[in-house]
Amino acid sequence: MAEQLVFELALRPAMGREDFFVSAANAGAVAQIDAWRDWPHGKLVLAGPEGAGKTHLAHVWAGMTGAVLVEAGDLDDRVAEEHADAPALVVENAHRLAGQPAREAALFHLHNALIQRAAPTLFTATDGPERWGLGLPDLDSRMRQAGLARVAPPDDALLMAVMMKLAHDRALPLTPKTLAHVAPRIERSFAAVRAFVDALDARALAAKRPPRFKDAKAVLAEMKQPVSR
């Protein structure tokens, strides 16, 4: 059943990156990314918790549009001037601008330059702009004009699909029993899935045999151990 569920998921090429899987957790956001020409005022906020796949989806969109990717923490007047002529822009972790007047001002000027040329902009964040706490009123009002797409934490189906893809890339066999056991017990993030596959692969290489169900359980248990200080 788990194997059937995995293969029923939609599979999208991620513009030269690893395959991007679509499930109920991100289907709505994917649809809004596909409809980027219809974004309100040419901009969209892609909101969701850490590890939900926002960055991956932002890279997919950048591949579609030729967008330049900028980390919010790197924004300053020089970066704003450098990218004022970009065909499209991705600002990662835009919520982290709050409380940094110089960076907020840099984004405000960059945003205005892009809007004047009708260049679309995608912002990733943990929540909608009304929750960012921006101190620059003009920037705050413009961010609230953006469309909002939400990405939920990965569901079991999505975690299993990504786990299977990562394992396949390493020629690491995972049984449906293993997938079904791990998915509901692992942290809801792609980073955790990658760490699990890495650890399972290392264990299999050390044992010089394919991983067994007990190996998967052992790796899960190790991942849940508190870090000693």
Automatic annotation (TrEMBL):
For biological process, the GO terms are:
DNA replication initiation
Single GO MF descriptor: DNA replication origin binding
> Superkingdom of this entry's organism?
Bacteria
Q: Which residues form a coiled coil?
A: none
Checking SUPFAM superfamilies in the record gives:
P-loop containing nucleoside triphosphate hydrolases
Q: Name one GO cellular component term.
A: plasma membrane
Instruction: Extract the PANTHER family matched here.
Output: CHROMOSOMAL REPLICATION INITIATOR PROTEIN DNAA, DNAA REGULATORY INACTIVATOR HDA
What protein name is recorded for this chain? Chromosomal replication initiator protein DnaA
